[in-house]
Amino acid sequence: MKMRMSDLVAQYILEMLEEQNGSAEIQRNELAGNLGCVPSQINYVITSRFTPEQGYIVESRRGGGGFIRISRVKMDKGTALMHIVNSVGERLDKTTAEVMLRNMLQRSMLEMQTAKAIAAALSDRTLRNVEQEKRDSVRADLFKNMLLTLDS
After folding, report:
1. This prediction's pTM
2. Could you count the other beta carbons within 10 Å of the beta carbon of residue 140?
3. Which of 9, 151, 16 is nearest to 72 (CA)?
4. At CB < 8 A and 24+ separation, what contacts does 11-17 make?
5. 54, 115, 123, 138 - which has most CB atoms within 10 Å?
6. From the CB of residue 102, how many other CB atoms can be counted at a distance below 10 Å?
């Protein structure tokens, strides 16, 4: 299975964070050159997958020596779950749900079996009898309620 560029960028950044004890400085143009993508793809991945709700602090400095610093915030599982629940909002598309589950797995907040069960429950196949325009709202409610039961 071929990995999407955004998955490759996210994986690369996660590996950097792992190697550097939870904090990494990234030169956007240099990283884009190394991975063979455009700098805007680096921005997209950082803004969508390395958010405060997902347990990261992102700082950037522009200019010639500019960089982006990503730091993993240390928090207990209960606090992290509440951040995620609060970040979901009223609607949740399938792709965002999958990214959130993957992040939770990488942070050891979920077991693989639990993540697979949640992903199955949130899938378009499971929600096929829900009207298309209501599907993301139902998915958000399901996800939040499942997460709330994890910490009890």
Report:
1. 0.60
2. 19
3. 16
4. 13/45, 13/46, 13/50, 13/70, 14/106, 17/70, 17/72
5. 54
6. 18
